[in-house]
Specification:
Chain lengths: 150, 250
């Protein structure tokens, strides 16, 4: 075996070993790598009970309610399987809307209500011009009117 | 065929052969980079449509995404050069790795900075510690570490070996950055463009992004070649061919 072949094997072996180590570490700390918990995880009691954590999901369509003070909002965060009721007092980001992703930081009060101290909008990876979005929306409405499922 | 012989490829590992060739290639890369930037920016600002959700602020991505891609790609290329230098002990490979690092660091910084400026209007925050943002920040520190380590050791051979090892250890961060949005919950959205599915963006947006990516790529090659030429002159200043070059005033 030539010296440089030995070094080639060492480099490749080293990177392979490193990959294995990293995989094991990230498997072990998987829950710490998550930025937020989903409503399903909350219902399954995987989220911290008496501590602050982040809850992420979609703002459920038709669930947004604003109180008369103009600052307090209530909405449901859903992952299309489970819903969590969220209350927030403050200014919402521009991209906050029903049906869009959201990540909220907060904790449960005694009554099963998630009180958020911070609300961040989570953007999805779709980019398109408004006309295309309108056309898509029209198709969706039409299908709904015809009673079809999407 | 000449290009299938070992001697053909080996000559390019010689700084003496590479120096003039690199010099001839630089203007081509720089000019095509400039032209692509102009067309790319025109596409980004005038051709690509307004986004249905974000309005105009999404246009930051025409800088952000290509810069982020380049930050990862340049690290990968740097690692390839570093390992070639480690295995075959070619001086030029180490110089190439060293020449790529600053550009990689700059693109990483641009990706973080523009991302932060986009995050404020879109997410409502400049920065969060999610897996994507954190791993990209680690990439910036890896570049800094590589540059610092290479500069800190006086003996060029030892500097090359130590920095190459650091680069190789850091390569594990690349899949982490790329797949972080798939493996874990992150605030950062998933990839709009991937190999296995159609891009989830309008065609003109996609074109603008590709144009900017190639523009950054061409610039990266051009500037890295300029840097490596400087380093060749510095490291080989006692070689007779450099002395001749300086005497002839070229």
């Amino acid at each position: 075996m030539k010296q440089r072949h030995k070094r080639l094997a060492l480099v490749l072996g080293g990177v392979a070993a490193l990959t294995v180590v990293a995989t094991l570490i990230f498997n072990a700390v998987n829950s710490n790598m998550q930025f937020f918990f989903s409503p399903s995880q909350v219902v399954a009691k995987e989220a911290p009970v008496n501590a602050s954590f982040r809850l992420g999901g979609l703002v459920k369509e038709g669930s947004l309610e604003r109180e008369n003070d103009g600052l307090t909002v209530h909405f449901l965060v859903t992952d299309n399987a489970e819903d969590v009721q969220v209350t927030y007092v403050g200014i919402l980001p521009d991209l906050f809307r029903e049906g869009q992703g959201v990540v909220t930081q907060g904790a449960f009060n005694g009554e099963g209500n998630f009180v958020a101290s911070e609300v961040l909008a989570k953007h999805d990876e779709t980019y398109m011009p408004p006309e295309v979005a309108d056309a898509l929306e029209k198709v969706k409405q039409q299908q709904k009117a015809e009673g079809g499922t999407i | 065929m000449k290009i299938f012989t070992k001697a053909y490829w080996l000559q390019w590992s010689s700084p003496k052969t590479f120096y003039p060739t690199a010099g001839k290639m630089i203007p081509w890369f720089m000019i095509s980079g400039l032209i692509l930037t102009i067309i790319g920016l025109y596409y980004s600002f005038f051709v690509a449509p307004t986004d249905y959700q974000q309005g105009e602020s999404y246009r930051i991505m025409f800088i952000h995404v290509p810069a982020a891609w380049m930050s990862m790609w340049l690290y990968f290329v740097m690692c390839i050069y570093a390992s070639i230098g480690l295995i075959w002990r070619t001086r030029l490979s180490d110089m190439m790795a060293g020449a790529i690092a600053p550009t990689g660091a700059i693109f990483t910084f641009i990706a973080l900075w523009t991302g932060s400026l986009w995050g404020k209007p879109t997410w409502g925050t400049y920065w969060v510690w999610d897996a994507r943002l954190t791993s990209e920040l680690i990439l910036l520190f890896l570049y800094f570490g590589f540059i610092a380590l290479r500069a800190a050791i006086d003996d060029p051979q030892r500097a090359a070996r130590a920095s190459a090892l650091l680069a190789l250890v850091g390569v594990i961060n690349l899949p982490i950055i790329y797949f972080s949005v798939k493996w874990w919950n992150t605030l950062h959205q998933g990839a709009s463009i991937s190999i296995d599915s159609a891009p989830t963006m309008a065609a003109t947006m996609f074109t603008a992004m590709l144009l900017m990516t190639f523009a950054f790529w061409m610039y990266s090659i051009g500037i890295a070649l300029m840097r490596v030429r400087n380093e060749i002159l510095e490291k080989e200043k006692n070689a007779s061919w450099v002395q001749e070059l300086l005497r002839d005033g070229k």
